[in-house]
Amino acid sequence: MKPLLKPLSFIYDHIVGFKNSLYDRGILGAYKPPMKVISIGNLTMGGTGKTPITDFCLKSLVGEHKKVAVVSRSYRADASASVRVDVTHPHAARYYGDEPVLLAQANPDVTVFVGDSKWQTAEYSTKNYGPFDVIVVDDGFQHRKLHRDLNIVILDATEPWSNYQVVPEGRARESWEGLERADVILFTKCNLADENSLKVVQDHLPPGKEILYFGYDIVELNNGKETAPTEILKGQCMFLVSAIARPDVFEKMMRSYGEISKRSLHYRDHHQYTESDAQKIWNDFKKSGADYLVTTSKDAVKLRRLLPEPEKLWSTNLQVTEFGTKGRLHEIIGQLFS
User: Fold this and answer.
1) Does a structural domain hold residue 27?
2) Burial of residue 34 (number of CB atoms within 10 Å: 0-12, 13-18, 19+)
């Protein structure tokens, strides 16, 4: 099948490459807000673990007493015009998007905005809620209409080199050469990666780039009312449900804590759960005989309110671990303000 996709990838790659060349040559310009801009993005079509890293950076900035705005796209959500995320909205995740709501909930001192266009949303946030010290652009690497002072690109350490072909042949949004625009390349899930496969990817990185390495661990569970250690899953059966780009990685992480039900479900990334979805999930969970119904934190903001017993849904809380030099990402971000 892949050989048949090569012509489509060739066409897509050249369209994206032509657009990038227009920005590189200054033919197309970018909106430059009157504050620092940090972009945190991907080379592939999601699943890199970007949200935990974004959260990590936000907490670093708030810890330095910076006034922070986040600009994100209302992907598969109802909001179209630029708007500030209100976590008290009764259908917040559906209206604003799951990741923006998750970031807003986890960082109450940060103002999160969504809209169809990131540069227009950045302009909206500045004019209506500014001034800010810094704007963090969620998933901003390919959005070149918005200027950035720091380009952080995240690569999934578990992603095989073959997946970096441009879509639809692979999972890359643009060619590997696009990494030349990155200021920092950050590998995630390093604790879950095969060392040989990771080395193949590393060997293709452009020279002179700063490379950072992070791992993810599930440290606790949350059911909306209380937290519990992962030890409660020992010897238990889990029914997993998720709507993420890499459900295989989620299952791999959970497999170290307990047994996984064969009836577990996964949906398309960013799926907006409906009441009928929730009913199926609940019924399948009950039929499975599993002890725990477990999902990701991104899914919980959408799914929990739809279940007949919301407290039965446990979400995973990830802990970000730095490999190598501790505090280096914090130091790089701090250099923007020195």
Assistant:
1) no
2) exposed
CATH number at residue 106: 3.40.50.300
Other CB atoms within 10 Å distance of the CB of residue 121: 26
- Whether residues 107 and 179 share a domain: the answer is yes
Q: Which among 228, 253, 237, 230 is positioned nearest to 287, based on CA atoms?
A: 237
84: left (phi over 0), alpha (psi -120 to 50) or beta: beta
Helix axes 98-106, 50-63, angle to 10 degrees: 30
Does residue 222 share a domain with residue 96? no
Least Cα distance to 228 among 321, 311, 322, 107 occurs for 311
2 pLDDT tier (thresholds 50, 70, 90): low
Q: What is the CATH number of the domain that holds 254?
A: 3.40.50
pLDDT digits (tens, 9 = 90+) for 230-239: 999 999 999 9
Residue with tokens 């250690």: 229
Q: Is the pLDDT of residue 63 over 60?
A: yes
Residue 4 pLDDT = 79
Straight-line distance from the first to the last Cα atom of the chain, in angstroms, rounded to the nearest whole number:
52
Q: Give the mean pLDDT of 10-36.
A: 96
How far is Cα 116 from Cα 121, in angstroms, rounded to an integer? Answer: 8
